[in-house]
C-alpha cells in the first residue's frame, strides 16, 4: 500500500505553531539520539515567520547549539538584500534566539560567488559535503528535517512547475537562472535531496494557497502521465515522511482526509 503524507489543518496560526513546535521537538530528539547535530534546511517566504513562534523561542528544550541550519533554497543576492532568505531567517528567527542560548551553526551562501550561480551552487554543495560526507561515500545527504514552503504555483525550494531542474539526478544543489518568481537567479536543493530527508514539513497558510492545495492533494496527473507539481512530487517521493501544517483557509475544499492534531 502507498504510504501517504499527513495533512494537518489547524484553526489558527497559533495552534499550527504549537503543533509545528511539538513536531520539531520530536525531530530534534530523534536526531540527537543518533548524532551530535540536528541537521535541517529551511525555506524562505512565509515559513520563517511561522517557524519563529513564541513557544519555540521560549522553549528550554530546543538545543540551539546543536542545530545546523542550511537553506533549502537561496536567491543569488547579498546576505543583507531584502530578497535574501538568509536575511529573512535572521530577522524572523536567528536574531530572536535568546542571548543566553548557544548559537546554532548557520550555513549561508558565499556572498563572494554571486556572479556565477553554478559556482554558488557548487560551493553550497561543498558546504553540505563538509557537514554530511563526501559525495563518493554517500549518494545523498540525509537531512533530519526539512521545513519547506509551498508557493501558490506549487513550487517548493526553487523547484518550479515544469522546470528541467525537476529531472536533476546527480547534483545535491543546483543553480537556476530563470526562476519564474523574482529574483530569477537562485540555488536550490534538488528533488532527490529533498525526498531523501528523514522528515519533511510543509507549512502552507491562507486562502491564497487553497487552489494549489486542491491540485496537490486531490488531483493525480501522474496517473495519466501529466505534469506533477513540485510539492506533489515531494509527496509522491517521500510519502509518509511528509507532514503538511496548514490552516483551515489553505485547505478549504480539499477532499484528502485531514487531521486536526498530530
Ligand atoms: O521564492 C520562494 O517561495 C517559496 C514559497 O514562498 P511562500 O511565501 O509562498 O511561502 C519559498 O518556500 C522559497 O523558499 C522561496 O525562495
How would you describe what is shown here?
The longest helix is centred in the N-terminal third of the chain and has 22 residues, at 13-34. The protein starts with 5 loop residues before the first strand and ends in an 11-residue tail after the last helix. By secondary structure, the protein is α/β, with parallel strands linked by helices. It has helices at 13-34, 47-51, 54-58, 85-92, 117-131, 191-196, 210-218, 230-238, 248-251; strands spanning 6-10, 38-42, 67-71, 73-75, 105-106, 145-149, 173-176, 186-189, 200-204, 242-247. The protein has one domain (6-251): Rossmann fold (3-Layer(aba) Sandwich), CATH 3.40.50.1360. The strands form two sheets. The chain has a seven-stranded parallel sheet with strand order 1-10-9-6-2-3-5, with helices on both faces. Strands 4-8-7 form a three-stranded antiparallel sheet. 32% of the residues lie in helices and 17% in strands. It binds the ligand O=C1O[C@H](COP(=O)(O)O)[C@@H](O)[C@H](O)[C@H]1O. Residues 43-47, 72-73, 85, 149, 151, 156, 158, 181 line the site of ligand LXAUTJHC.
Q: Top keywords for this entry?
A:
alpha/beta; 262 residues; binds the ligand O=C1O[C@H](COP(=O)(O)O)[C@@H](O)[C@H](O)[C@H]1O; 9 helices; 10 strands; single chain; Rossmann fold; globular
- How much helix, percentage-wise, in residues? 25-40%
What would you call the quaternary organization? single chain
Radius of gyration: 17 Å
CATH architecture: 3-Layer(aba) Sandwich
For the secondary structure, the number of strands is 10
User: Main sheet: which strands, in order across?
Assistant: 1-10-9-6-2-3-5
**Low-confidence sequence ranges:** none
Strand content: 15-25%
Rough shape? globular
SSE succession? EHEHHEEHEHEEEHEHHEH
Q: Give the biggest beta sheet.
A: 7 strands, parallel
Amino acid at each position: 500500500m502507498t504510504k501517504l503524507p499527513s495533512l494537518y489543518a489547524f484553526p489558527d496560526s497559533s495552534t499550527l505553531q504549537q503543533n509545528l513546535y511539538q513536531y520539531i521537538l520530536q525531530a530534534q530528539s530523534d536526531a540527537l539520539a543518533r548524532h551530535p547535530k540536528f541537521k535541517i534546511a529551511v525555506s524562505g517566504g512565509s515559513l520563517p515567520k511561522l517557524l519563529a513562534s513564541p513557544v519555540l523561542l521560549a522553549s528550554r528544550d530546543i538545543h540551539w547549539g546543536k542545530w545546523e541550519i542550511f537553506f533549502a533554497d537561496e536567491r543569488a543576492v547579498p546576505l543583507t538584500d531584502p530578497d535574501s532568505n538568509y536575511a529573512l531567517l535572521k530577522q524572523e528567527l536567528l536574531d530572536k534566539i535568546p542571548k543566553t542560548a548557544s548559537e546554532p551553526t548557520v550555513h549561508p551562501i558565499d556572498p563572494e560567488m554571486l556572479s556565477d550561480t553554478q559556482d554558488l551552487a557548487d560551493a553550497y554543495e561543498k558546504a553540505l559535503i563538509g557537514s554530511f560526507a563526501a559525495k563518493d561515500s554517500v549518494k545523498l545527504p540525509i537531512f533530519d528535517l526539512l521545513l519547506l514552503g509551498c508557493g501558490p504555483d506549487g513550487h517548493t525550494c526553487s523547484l518550479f512547475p515544469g522546470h528541467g531542474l525537476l529531472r536533476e539526478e546527480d547534483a545535491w544543489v543546483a543553480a537556476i537562472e530563470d526562476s519564474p518568481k523574482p529574483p530569477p537567479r537562485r540555488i536550490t536543493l534538488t528533488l532527490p535531496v529533498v525526498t531523501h530527508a528523514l522528515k519533511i514539513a510543509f507549512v502552507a497558510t491562507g486562502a491564497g494557497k487553497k487552489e494549489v492545495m486542491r491540485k496537490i492533494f486531490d488531483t493525480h496527473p501522474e496517473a495519466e502521465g501529466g505534469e506533477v507539481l513540485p510539492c506533489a512530487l515531494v509527496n509522491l517521493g517521500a510519502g509518509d515522511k511528509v507532514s503538511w501544517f496548514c490552516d483551515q483557509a489553505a485547505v478549504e475544499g480539499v477532499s484528502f482526509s485531514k487531521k486536526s492534531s498530530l
